């Protein structure tokens, strides 16, 4: 079958949506299917087109058997609500206009977090008379309100109406969490159409390895206990909690043994860097994002990984994808996210859960893992044992089966005779 997948993030971008989409599509190609992706020129999160690409009307490439069609979009950094809306809508329009040039698919998938991609997928599926699948990675626009980027307003209510329209028009919805599924059911969406395929880890890339000696020396980390956050530095992540923990921990006996790495980019990175300078935090290193071929070298430096989100009921429904990457690397986790993801951490016994934005609990977790190497090793072993349960290849094949079933149901419905008036 021919799967048309719409996403505004795709490699060489390295964020969670780009990785999930690429790894799923690669497995579908390996299973013998044709996969076409419509995306934009890679630019996330700094809003600058990557070297070797240009932001033009149309450019094609082939990536591990995946046909990639890149379209022109209005490019902006991952900051500023109105500019991001322009970015999203320009992609939506460009994707719809590009669709006639990819042939006839059997199914169209649109992925969030924002739903303008799903809008384009629904429009294309309607034009081509094939089913539309909504891959739900975030409850957008609810997440906008959760981070304080926008208050309840006529615009938000309009977005919510569009959101419900898409849920009802989707032949299937693939959610990344059980919590999202329950939320949709509470809002009246038919449970039979909602499936759950969690995020996972590419075990061919994320696996245990010794600390990279070259990076360790270059960054001055020899003999240090290294705690790290790797990911987007956005409004949702409340990373000032880590800075406050770094300030607190250096006052403790033996506090000089700790170092903190914050690797990635995002809307709040410069603000966080300025704050660290004002606090004179010489135990914190800010590093820019690196390509996926190098990111595991930086993961290898960590004695413990910090996963954190702002304290909000919405984020209790979220499972950060870096949780599974930590498992693949065998790195213990300090998990500052409540809800479904915390339940996974506890059930798999791969880390210590602390209250989001609670500096005291984060410091306690850091000092415990530093002072109790047996506990640290036990959590790391549990992480490695749990990782195969979240193998991306297996999860990709689960989603593939959902797509196959959706196509079969759609074709069967078309064959049903229409009742005479």
Summarize the helices and strands and which ones pair or pack:
Blueprint: E1 2-6, H1 16-30, E2 34-40, E3 58-63, E4 66-71, H2 81-98, E5 107-111, H3 116-128, E6 132-136, H4 142-146, H5 154-169, E7 172-175, H6 178-186, E8 194-196, H7 213-218, E9 225-230, H8 240-249, E10 258-263, H9 269-278, E11 284-287, H10 295-299, E12 304-308, H11 322-329, E13 333-336, H12 340-348, E14 351-353, H13 359-371, H14 373-386, H15 392-415
Parallel strand pairs: 1-2, 1-5, 2-4, 5-6, 6-7, 7-8, 9-10, 9-12, 10-11, 12-13, 13-14
Antiparallel strand pairs: 3-4
The helix-strand sequence is: EHEEEHEHEHHEHEHEHEHEHEHEHEHHH
Task: Give me the CATH superfamily of the largest domain.
Answer: Glycogen Phosphorylase B
Strand portion:
15-25%
Q: Determine the fraction of residues in helical runs and give it as a percent range.
A: 40-55%
What is the name of the CATH class of the largest domain? Answer: Alpha Beta
Gyration radius, in Å: 22 Å
Total domain count? 2
Determine the mean pLDDT: 92
List descriptors.
single chain; alpha/beta; Rossmann fold; 2 domains; 16% strand
Give your account of this protein's structure.
The chain has 421 residues and is α/β, with parallel strands linked by helices. It has two domains: 2-200 and 391-412, Glycogen Phosphorylase B (Rossmann fold), CATH 3.40.50; 213-389, Glycogen Phosphorylase B (Rossmann fold, 3-Layer(aba) Sandwich). Helices cover 42% and strands 16% of the residues. It has an eight-stranded mixed beta sheet with strand order 3-4-2-1-5-6-7-8, with helices on both faces. A six-stranded parallel beta sheet has the order 11-10-9-12-13-14, with helices on both faces. The two termini are 35 Å apart.
């Amino acid at each position: 079958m021919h799967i048309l997948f719409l996403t505004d993030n795709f490699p060489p971008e390295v964020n969670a949506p780009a990785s999930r989409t690429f790894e799923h599509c690669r497995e579908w190609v390996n299973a013998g299917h044709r996969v076409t992706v419509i995306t934009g020129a890679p630019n996330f999160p700094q809003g600058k087109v990557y070297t070797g690409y240009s932001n033009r009307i149309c450019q094609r490439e082939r990536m591990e058997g995946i046909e990639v069609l890149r379209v022109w979009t209005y490019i902006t950094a991952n900051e500023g609500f109105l500019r991001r809306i322009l970015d999203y809508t320009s992609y939506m329009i460009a994707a719809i206009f590009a669709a006639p040039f990819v042939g006839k698919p059997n199914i169209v998938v649109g992925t969030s977090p924002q739903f303008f991609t799903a809008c384009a997928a629904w429009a294309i599926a309607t034009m081509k008379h094939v089913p539309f699948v909504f891959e739900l990675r975030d409850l957008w626009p609810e997440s906008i309100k959760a981070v304080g980027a926008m208050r309840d307003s006529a615009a938000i209510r309009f977005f919510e109406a569009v959101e419900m329209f898409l849920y009802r028009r989707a032949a299937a919805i693939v959610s990344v969490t059980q919590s999202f599924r329950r939320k949709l059911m509470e809002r009246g969406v038919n449970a039979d159409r909602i499936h759950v395929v969690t995020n996972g880890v590419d075990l061919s890339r994320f696996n245990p390895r010794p600390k990279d000696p070259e990076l360790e020396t270059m960054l001055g980390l020899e003999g240090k206990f290294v705690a790290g956050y790797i990911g987007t530095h956005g409004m949702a992540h409340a990373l000032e909690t880590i800075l406050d923990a770094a300030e607190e921990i250096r006052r403790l006996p033996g506090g000089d043994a700790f170092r903190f790495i914050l690797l990635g980019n995002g809307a709040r990175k410069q603000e966080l860097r300025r704050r660290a300078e004002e606090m004179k935090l010489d135990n914190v290193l800010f590093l820019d994002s690196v390509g996926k071929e190098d990111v595991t070298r930086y993961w290898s430096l960590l004695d413990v990984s910090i996963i954190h989100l702002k304290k909000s009921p919405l984020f209790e429904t979220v499972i950060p994808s870096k949780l599974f990457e930590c498992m693949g690397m065998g790195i213990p986790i300090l998990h500052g996210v409540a809800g479904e993801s915390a339940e996974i951490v506890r059930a798999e016994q791969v880390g210590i859960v602390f209250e989001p934005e609670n500096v005291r609990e984060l410091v306690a977790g850091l000092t415990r893992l530093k002072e109790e190497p047996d506990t640290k090793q036990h959590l790391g072993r549990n992480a490695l044992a749990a990782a195969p349960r979240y193998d991306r290849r297996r999860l990709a094949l689960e989603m593939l089966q959902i797509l196959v079933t959706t196509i079969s149901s759609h074709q069967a419905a078309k064959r049903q005779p229409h009742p005479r008036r």
